């Protein structure tokens, strides 16, 4: 057991060292990019630095697999960085599902099925309540590119889901 603890401590120390190196590099780059930032508009450097740090940090922690983060998903939705496919919008219109309801489910609902190995981006099935009715939304998410792709949204039914509308039948 102590061998496992030593390995874990070693990984944590390596992770902390890499984070410190990234901060040093970013601070150095800031001095070089300051003139570019002034011409590119406010927040340019912050967005670039955040994206770079997130990519490196994420690859270290997950072995390059993207994992969902509620705060990040909410931030992406607030920035209105959702791709609404024609197919999804058509189905939503047929079923009486609004864009606001889908955004609400992603921000406040819970993920009931996660598909981290889906390509080109990981995806997940969200469950939530909209106007006292259960609603599901399936999204793919590119957390590095900070974008959500709506695959579909639907009102779950008792034929396919248990009474909680979270557990699939059979």
Summarize the SSE layout with pairings.
Blueprint: H1 2-40, H2 44-62, H3 70-78, E1 82-84, H4 86-95, H5 99-108, E2 110-115, E3 123-130, E4 133-142, E5 147-154
Helix pairs in contact: 1-2
Give a quick account of the main beta sheet: strands, pairing sense, barrel closure.
5 strands, mixed
Q: How many helical elements?
A: 5
Can you tell me the CATH architecture of the largest domain? Answer: 2-Layer Sandwich
Domain count: the total is: 2
Low-pLDDT ranges: 54-64
* Mean pLDDT across every amino acid position: 77
The portion of residues forming beta strands comes to: 15-25%
Please explain how this structure is put together.
- The protein has 170 residues and is an alpha+beta fold.
- Mean pLDDT is 77; it is low at 54-64.
- The chain has helices spanning 2-40, 44-62, 70-78, 86-95, 99-108, and strands spanning 82-84, 110-115, 123-130, 133-142, 147-154.
- It has two domains: 2-62; 70-154, 2-Layer Sandwich (YaeB-like fold), CATH 3.30.2310.40.
- It starts with a helix and ends in a 16-residue tail after the last strand.
- The chain has a five-stranded mixed sheet with strand order 1-5-4-3-2.
- The protein is elongated, with a radius of gyration of 20 Å.
- Helix 1 (2-40) packs antiparallel against helix 2.
- The chain has five helices and five strands.
- The chain is 51% helix and 21% strand.
């Amino acid at each position: 057991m102590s061998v496992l603890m030593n390995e874990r401590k070693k990984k944590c120390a390596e992770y902390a060292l890499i984070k410190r190196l990234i901060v040093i590099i970013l601070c150095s780059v800031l001095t070089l990019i300051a003139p570019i930032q002034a011409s590119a508009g406010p927040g340019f450097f912050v967005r670039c630095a955040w994206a770079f740090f997130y990519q490196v940090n994420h690859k270290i922690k997950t072995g390059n697999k993207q994992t969902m983060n509620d705060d990040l998903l909410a931030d992406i939705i607030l920035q209105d960085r959702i791709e609404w496919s024609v197919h999804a919008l058509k189905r939503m219109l047929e079923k009486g599902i609004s864009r606001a309801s889908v955004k609400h489910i992603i921000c406040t609902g819970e993920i009931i099925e996660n598909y981290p190995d889906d390509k080109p981006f990981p995806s997940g099935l969200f469950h939530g309540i909209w106007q006292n009715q259960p609603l599901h939304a399936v999204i793919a998410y590119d957390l590095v590119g900070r974008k959500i792709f709506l695959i579909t949204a639907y009102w779950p039914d008792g034929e396919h889901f248990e009474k909680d509308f979270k557990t699939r039948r059979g």
